[in-house]
Structure formats: structure tokens, C-alpha cells
Amino acid sequence: MAGTGSGSGKTSVTCGILNCLIRRGHSAAAFKCGPDYIDTMFHSRVLGVSTGNLDSFFADPDTLRRLILKNGREKEISIVEGVMGYYDGIGFTDAGSSCDIAKLTDTPVVLLVNCRGMGCSALAVLKGFVEFRQPSMIRGVIFNMMPESLYPEAKRLAEEMGLSVFGYVPRQKQELLFQSRHLGLVTAREIENFKEIVDRFSDQLERTIDLDGLLALAQSAPPVYSKAVSGETVSAPKGNKRTGPLRIAVAKDEAFCFLYRDNMDYLREHGCEIVYFSPLHDSGLGENIGGLILSGGYPELYAEKLASNEPMRSQIRQQIENGLPCIAECGGFLYLHEELEGEDGVYYPMAGVIRGRGYKTERLQRFGYLELKPESDCLLGEPGDVIRAHSFHYWDSEDKGSAFQAVKPGKRSKWREGIASDTLYAGFPHLYFYGNAKAADRFIAKAGEYHRR
Fold it and tell me: Are 69 and 230 in contact, with CB atoms under 8 Å apart?
């Protein structure tokens, strides 16, 4: 399910179609193109299971196919939600775009055309997307925000282009739309009447979307092959022999909710046991913890409550200072500061591992993919390594660090950021383990050393 641009309705329509299929008794899996965390939360609330990402900047083609096999082979249908506009990749290339992923995985595409404010021009937009690059992989179209009166003629003209038309979505009432915040959509768990919204939207789609046609299109997709044996357990990194499970504590609650399901799978495949904990609600990390991941999220929305949990802040500070291997990304990085400015403008005490404050800014500070190059040996790598990451944050730090040279791919932009030691990575950039196996394995190995000690 691709779109003509951001805001074209991809997440709403994808969730509605998934819900329709599940209500009909079909089993489904979902994926999100690119590095987005939030849209996968919406998929998981519809499906009742975690969903994953497909990102061709991070992962090579065989890894992409392996992820589809591993997470979708027990399901009747897998739906991949695109990112931004269909051709939007790195710069003016296809790299990292929805089109790129469709080609690499041989997945047929349905283009969602946002028709708001357009009549016949919607067909010009559709024709441009179909013919812009070949092969386009676009097999069909859904017209979003199209009046019922215009649909029959739009359908006829689209079919003359050789496309299948899978229906339309009339303009929706405001209460049936998901709302936005500075990182995109609000998270699915924040919408109290989420199920009611999706069910009412799905009722609409049942009337105007050709679900049987979409199932037939999915059935026409060629088989997916991968060189790797899907679902196999990978041995732990060499030199990491241990007794008992290697337990990795992972922050997961309302404040820390930006987690790749694939990262957790990678750790499990390498012999780790995931122990979720809440910096908001719990008093400690748990017993026999060998490593710590402080994930991203919205700590600024919960700064006062995080500050009030002094036992947790104190334990995290002490354990990191005692050598507990830790990856702290974006929101987790902000949590490690001495103070964090909440959305209310008040500064609250945090874990105190990193000197200085995290503070609010008026505009987006970093956005998009980047490559991190270590200046010296550290938890994630060594000089000469290239660690692929992505960044998206409005909050900033008085101490962003300088452990890595950061480079925007395809551009000349360079800067330094990130705090790193033998046992710590803390910074705004987010990591994806399947695309950074060496960095992930170094973290696991260090956690194994700490576990034995």
C-alpha cells in the first residue's frame, strides 16, 4: 500500500483493510517500509501481534526477503505499508524508497491517490506515478477522499491505463482520522477509542473497497526466497560462552515505546532473553541483567513522572557507571541526562549519567538516514566501521558528544555526535540490528562479559 506522499492516508487505509480481513477470518501480517516506529504500533493494535519494518537502507535484499519469510510465512496475506511518497528515497534516488523495497521483494503495489481538492487531475497524478520509472510495480489504485459521484468515471479511466481499481474512500469525518504530533501520528495506545475508530472506518471500506480483488492480487505475488534459513537460531558471538540466559533489560512503556520488533528478534536469535521493564512504573531492572537498552519514545511527555521514580533513576545510573553495557537512543539518551525539559517547559531530574540538560527546540533538529563512523574503539565499533542509523528529534542536548563522525548519505553534510565508551552508546541516532550486525554482536559480547563477571 503506497501513497502519492505523506498524509495520503496510508496508515488509516492499511489498518482498515487489515481489520476487514481479520474480521473475515483471514490471518495477516504487516510491515512498514522505512525506519518508522509509530505506524507499526497501529498495525499491531489491529492485528494483536507485533509487526516489523522493511528498510533497504539498513538491510540487504536477502535480509529483506528473510524478514518477510520469517514474519509472514504462517499468514495468508502480508501487507506492506509504504513510506512518504512512493518514489521518495535518499535524495532524488529510489534508494530506501517504497519503490525500491517493492522491486527488491517483487511485491505488487496498490497506489493510494489522495484526491482531495482534485477532480480529473487525480488521473494525471496516477498516470505520472505509473509511468515515471519502469518497472513501477504499480498494479492497482485506490482513490482516497474521492466523492462517490466521481468514482465511476475515475475507475473507467484508470482501467484504460491497464490498472486494476480496488475502490475508493470517501472523505471521512474528523473523528475517524488519526491525529498527529511532532513525531508524526500520536501512538496507537494513546487513542482510547482506537478499536471503535478502526471498526467504523472498516465498515466504510467494506462498502467501497474490493477486498476480494486485493486478496487475488496478493495471491498473484511470486514466491519469496531467501538464502538464510528463516527462523533459525544463530549461535552467540564467539568468545561469549556463558552459563544461563543472557538477560537484556529493555525499556518499554508509555514513555519508551520506539522499539523495532526486529531488534528484539535479533537478540533472541543470538541467545538473549528480553526482560522488558518500565522506567515509569518499576523500581528496578530485574535480576541478573547483562545489558540494557533504553529505547526512544516520548520521555518529555512523562518527565515529571520519570523524575519521581528516583529508585529507578538511581539504579540505572549506578549500573551504567559499574560497566553495564547500555544502548540509549534518542529518548533513552535524553533520560540519561542530568535534567530534561518536559513539554510543560519545566526541567526535571533524570538519571544523571550524562552531564547537562535535554531541552525543547522549536524545529526538527535532525531528520533522516545517516552513517556513524567511530572515532575510536567503542561499544558499537572501531575506526573504519560504518554504522547505519536514522535520526528524528525536536529535543536537543547540551552534550551531544563527539564519538562519531555523522554523515548524511548522498550529501556533504558532516558533523560529530554521540557519546561512547567500551560499554556505552548514547545518542540521538537509532540503530537497526539486522543492518548493523557487527555493532549488535559487539553489544551482545560485552553483555556476555558483564554477565560472567
Answer: yes
Catalytic residues: 330
Give, rounded to a whole angstrom, the gap between the first and last alpha carbons of the chain. 49
pTM of the model: 0.89
Q: In whole angstroms, what separates CA 263 from the centre of its chain?
A: 11
Edge-to-edge, what's the strand order for the sheet holding 246-251? 272-277, 246-251, 289-294, 326-329, 424-427, 419-420
Rg (CA), the chain: 23
pLDDT (tens digit, 9 = 90+) per residue, 32-59?
A: 999 887 777 777 777 787 688 999 999 9
Average pLDDT over residues 363-379: 90
Asked if 325 contacts 443 with a C-beta cutoff of 8 angstroms, the reply is: yes
Give the chain's largest Cα–Cα span. Answer: 71
Q: How many residues does the chain have?
A: 453
State residue 181's pLDDT score: 39
* DSSP for residue 332: H
Task: Give the span between the Cα atoms of 152 and 168, in whole angstroms.
Answer: 10
What the block records as the C-alpha cell of 162 is: 491497464
> Rounded distance, CA 273 to CA 253, Å?
18
Each residue's pLDDT tens digit, 111-137: 999 999 999 999 999 999 999 999 999
Cα separation of 402 and 169, whole Å?
A: 49
pLDDT tens-digit readout, 264-280:
999 999 999 999 999 99
Tens of pLDDT along 181-193?
343 444 445 556 7
Give the whole-angstrom CA distance, residue 394 versus residue 365.
5
Q: What share of the chain is helix, strand, coil (3-state, %, to 5)?
A: 35, 25, 40
What average pLDDT does the segment 424-428 reach? 97
The pLDDT mean for the chain works out to 90
Distance CA 174, CA 185 (A): 15
Whether pLDDT at 231 is above 60: no
- Identity at 212, one-letter amino acid code: D
For 11, the enclosing helix (H) or strand (E) is helix 10-23
Q: What is the SS3 assignment for 139? A: strand
The DSSP 8-state label assigned to residue 339 in this structure reads E
Name residue, grid cell 505499508. Answer: 81
Separation CA 384–CA 206 (nearest Å):
54
The pLDDT > 70 percentage for the chain reads 92
Measured CA to CA, the distance from residue 41 to residue 52 in angstroms comes to 10
